[in-house]
Amino acid sequence: MATVRVRFAPSPTGYLHVGGARTALFNWLFARRTGGTFLLRIEDTDKERSTEAHTQVILDGLEWLGITYDEGPLFQGGFGARHKADAERLLAEGQAYRCFCTREELDAQRAAAEKTGGAFRYDGRCGRLSPKELQDRMERGLPFSIRLRMPDGEIAWDDAVHGRISFQGHDLDDFIILRSDGTPIYNLAVVSDDIEMRITHVIRGDDHISNTPKQIALYRAFRKPEPIFAHVPMILGNDGKKLSKRHGATAVGDYQKLGILPLAMRNFLALLGWSPGGDREILPEAEMIQLFSLEGIQKKPAVFDVTKLEWMNGQYLSALPADALLAPVQRLLSQKGTKTDRDLLPLIDAVKTRSRTLTDVAGQIEIRLNGRGSVMDAKGVALKQKLGPAFSHNLRQAHTALSTLGPEDWTPANLEVELKTLAEKEGKKLGDIMQPIRVALTGGTVSEPVNELLTVVGREESLARILAAAGT
RNA sequence: GCCGCUAUCGUCUAGGGGCCUAGGACACAGCCCUCUCAAGGCUGGAACACGGGUUCGAAUCCCGUUAGCGGUACCA
User: Looking at this predicted complex, what is its ipTM?
Assistant: First the structure.
């Protein structure tokens, strides 16, 4: 078998959609699995909607996800001459013909067809022009597009994910391959490029299934072997409709902003519509590549479940060493205007298992660094009310007890002993001592163990916050 | 309308004729651990769309129905 060559071919007309990212991921995985080549081709032939900014966003998104390409980015817009020449070759060979129908005429035909309830299919009238009629139109200098003569008969292929898919040539019409301005239509550009770039496997979205018979017709017209097609299912929103802005975050960049780790995103995306078989959920890159196969791709569309993504992100957050999280956390903190010269590593370690996103991590660190002033969250307030006077009283006692520990002795082990001793001596439940301290330090009732929290916040700051909370 | 694709817990999925009284994960509920929360452990509820075949035997194979989705451009 020839060396695998695959491509991801987005059009830069919007942001990098998670569906596109997953298509890219599958291509990448397949290339890495087979030792093939993965190339990136930007399909910017739609000049109206394509922008450089969008191209950059796509490039950034792929880089963020760690999806690396071996060739490209290639810009389809640069291959116009070849596209045109290919169309003209087909024309010269009689496999395509000039169509002089105007847009208005076509629209009228379409409207008429819809009225009678039938499907509009170009009737091929310009393909039946006599040599004289053709010559006449040419002499009058009428603009024309070029249409492919669609052969009758079956057009079928063995899709790597769906199995055999079959269309009938007579259900398809003689579609335009070159516009009257000499620019190519998508299907021509794709086939021309895929042939030129020696693409062996076309892995793309399900929505291209209906383009495939047209493209196969083109391969046949060019007398080139067609590649293997693998059509991956769509990604849906939680209402079962195609994922769109309406559903909230759909762009890869949105998840980056939300504090999702690229590794978690990639892992999640890989498992959306693909399964290695068995029970695997967390897949390191090497295993993902090792296990990847086109056969493992699901036929049906998948609903994008943000909750599971966040769970997975939490798994990565817990498992990753603090220094792997340092850079993004620092970025987030500086975005919030939080400045510190403290070593963030212990802070990250303290909060990462309790976080689902990097934004959570940064938020919790900020509280440990700066406190929340006298602001308490709802649970903090509730606890204070429940305890009544004991809240302040216990805090004062804790303050007195903890003050006896000097900076040298301010360690998790000593702090735990000190607090347990206090609780025992006073005949109080440990929680009635610990929880007020937690509220004093964080404003809430959730954190790492209090003795650790005290060391993370630091001696002076902790004592100050305890005193402040006791006084109010 | 026409063409095509798809159909297992709410969601992601395992399953490719007997191993299935259908397994795992997320979410949910309960319990354990425990100074709280997370993590972790245990337990529970929760699905083979429907109808016909084929077969000794179907979640698995075939046909139909229904539903959902995609396409139906001188867009990509």
Answer: 0.93
